[in-house]
Specification:
19 helices; alpha+beta; 666 residues; 4-stranded antiparallel β-sheet; single chain; 3 domains; 11 strands; 7-stranded mixed barrel
């Protein structure tokens, strides 16, 4: 009972540091409860389009677990630093290290008990609320039912039992290996004035330059996907290097400027920051990276959710379409039979016959060659399809003409300004560039380049396509010259009726093409209604996870700033007290404090905005992978997110700076 009373008394006396730690732990319990409840919901297994959502929640749950472990250890390290002097006093008064270990065990058990009880109860309530939000975002109907499983409760409990056991083992090891006099001095001991680290600073600048350069020079969305994590790692290394070493080097340079340095406010701020910047630098770099992660996550997911309808429409230029290597008349007949059997009607039918897709590589601006390696250079890979001139004239109601060796080029993405085009051994003169084609709307950006070549009718025959097929015989992506009709149409009836027709069409055409691999590969039945249902669950899930991750990073930032203010306030209190005793006025102390905390705590958000600005091009390319081509929407939403986040950051600074000022003035 003695140890229990001591543990309770210690927690009560140190409530200024224990209370935020417990709040942080409760918050992470709630986060893990939400992710586990969502991921373990059996209703996701029976809903259309929910497979990807289930994968996302399982991955998101693992990320939150990793975040929980790192964040708990980080905040716990601040807590223990404030406790070391107290533990040293207990040790000198007669408690040996074994007694201290038992006392800390009871402190951990009390903290764990309070955290789990409050966190699990709050998590159960909030998981229901978040479930309703997710249901609204994804549009899932009555089949998506809230389920609270004991498995979720058990997983979260085991996770936090493991985390608190590890923190206790770490604390016990720290106490056992440290002498009593060191425990008394460690909490308030400063570091020796660090030296300028030019090499480390230059490495940081180089890492940032390379990371920014990757983002600014990326030309292909697929290339962005492969280079993104390299750029992120370089920027993280560069950020830590600049904050830890670069800041000290800069402050040393300012110190050498006698005119600037020997002024009361500058002297206090620079000398104080030089003395402690090594420790501050790591914390400030962490805050900056967390702010950047929060801004990137929130702006990207919000943009995807708001722009999802535009994405769906760009993916589906027609409400419904069937693409299969069967005669157009047969395809239309099958569509009419299936639709009539579902008591509906077909309207607005259009059709076109294209050749198969030729996947080629741009060797020069006007020369296209076979792709010899599957992953050679995505930025130069282009898909080319061929269309007879008579088909284009019929669909676009034009009267264009071509000679035997002329073609029209329709660039679905980008522009084509060359006067010739060479594909394999075939070379054509480009008579002109077309501006529109009803079956392939223009795209601002795309994962891969895309061209449609309008060729003379006499060239659109098996002989010409056969020669092309021979040129690309040894390519990774072989050219299949078979004509490929596409039939687009609209359907009457309700949403459920249209969805049932799509399923029936899919089943019927699969039956017709069974036994023929070429026909099965060519088959594609699309429906904007079906795509909308699937995409809404996907982008709704992304938005939901964006909210969870964004709030997590924001709370982590808040706690780190708070602990830093408490830690710095306690350490700086004696120094400012001495300065006041030797003649520094109260007004000058206050001004020096404000100058220091404004510089220290607004620097991370400024660096985060700079990181976000340079990351914008690569983020824009990555979102193209999800179908978002609207760069203006991304720009507007990113600016709004930065303004809102900056306002929240200012509120955090304003509230926590009061804690620092009270500690220093006390």
């Amino acid at each position: 009972m003695l140890y229990l009373r001591l543990a309770y008394s210690n927690i009560k006396k140190n409530r200024t540091v224990y209370f935020p730690f417990c709040l942080a732990a409760i918050f992470t319990v709630v986060l893990n409860m939400i992710m586990q409840v969502m991921g373990n919901n059996q209703g996701l297994e029976h809903l259309r389009g929910a497979e990807s959502l289930k994968v996302m929640f399982n991955l998101g749950g693992k990320i939150i677990m990793i975040f929980t472990v790192v964040f708990t250890f980080y905040t716990h390290s601040f807590l223990m630093k404030r406790r070391k002097k107290e533990l040293g006093v207990y040790n000198i008064l007669g408690m040996d290290k074994k007694n201290l270990t038992v006392m800390m065990l009871f402190e951990n058990l009390i903290t764990l008990f309070v955290t789990l009880i409050i966190g699990l109860v709050t998590g159960a309530i909030f998981s229901k609320l978040m479930f309703l939000i997710l249901k609204r975002l994804t549009g899932f109907g009555a089949d998506f039912v809230y389920e609270f499983s004991l498995a979720s409760l058990g997983q979260v409990t085991l996770l936090f039992l493991g985390i608190f056991m590890l923190t206790f083992v770490y604390d016990a090891w720290e106490v056992r290996k440290t002498k009593p006099i060191e425990l008394l001095g460690q909490a308030s001991s400063g570091e020796k004035e660090p030296k300028s680290k030019w090499l480390f600073s230059l490495v940081g600048i180089a890492c940032l330059a390379v990371g920014y350069g990757i983002s600014l020079t990326i030309s292909s969305p697929v290339e962005a996907l492969t280079q993104f994590f390299i750029a992120v790692i370089l920027v993280i290394i560069g950020t830590y290097s600049i904050f830890i070493a670069g800041s000290i080097t800069l402050l040393k340079l300012l110190k050498k400027n006698k005119t600037f340095y020997y002024r009361p406010n500058n002297f206090i701020s620079i000398s104080s920051m030089i003395f402690r910047m090594k420790q501050n630098g790591a914390g400030l770099a962490t805050i900056s990276i967390l702010c950047t992660m929060a801004l990137v996550t929130i702006s990207s997911t919000v943009c995807l959710y708001i722009g999802q309808e535009k994405i769906i429409q760009s993916r589906n230029p027609f409400e419904n379409s069937v693409e299969v290597a069967l005669p157009v008349a047969q395809t239309k007949q099958v569509i009419n039979e299936v639709v009539k059997g579902q008591n509906s009607a077909v309207k607005g039918t259009k059709y076109v016959t294209l050749s198969g897709n030729l996947v080629t590589m741009k060797q020069e601006t006007d020369v296209f060659v076979p792709v010899k390696e599957a992953f050679s250079n995505y930025s130069k890979i282009v898909g080319i399809r061929f269309l007879a001139l008579s088909e284009y004239n019929r669909l676009e109601d034009t009267t264009l003409t071509l000679t035997e060796n002329e073609v029209y080029v329709y660039p679905v993405t980008g522009n084509y300004e060359e006067k010739r085009i060479k594909i394999g051994s075939e070379e054509f003169a480009v008579k002109g560039t077309l501006e529109q084609f009803v079956f392939a709307p223009k795209e601002e950006d795309a994962v891969l380049g895309s061209l449609i070549l309008v060729v003379p009718d006499e060239r659109a025959d098996p002989t010409f396509y056969g020669e092309l097929a021979e040129d690309f015989n040894e390519a990774v992506f072989k050219f299949v010259p078979a004509p490929l009709p596409i039939v687009s149409f609209e359907l009457a009836g309700s949403l459920d009726q249209r969805m049932n027709i799509t399923k029936a069409l899919q089943a019927r055409f699969q039956q017709l093409t069974s036994g023929d691999e070429e026909l099965q590969r060519s088959l594609s039945v699309t429906s904007i209604d079906q795509d909308r249902e699937e995409m809404r669950s996907l982008y709704g899930g992304f938005f939901f996870l964006g909210i969870v991750f964004g709030v997590s990073f924001l709370v982590a930032t808040t706690l780190i700033i708070y602990y830093k203010q408490v830690s710095e306030g306690s350490d700086d209190r004696d120094r400012f007290m001495i300065m006041q005793k030797v003649g520094l006025s109260h007004k000058e102390v206050k001004k020096a404090i404000q100058q220091q905390i404004i510089l220290v705590f607004f620097l991370p958000i400024i660096v985060a905005v700079i990181h976000l600005s340079f990351a914008f091009p690569i983020i824009k390319k990555l979102l193209v992978m999800f179908g978002l081509m609207n760069a203006n929407l991304l720009t507007i939403i990113t600016i709004i997110c930065v303004l809102i986040f900056s306002l929240g950051y200012f509120v955090i600074y304003w509230r926590t700076s009061k804690v620092y000022y009270q500690l220093v003035e006390r």
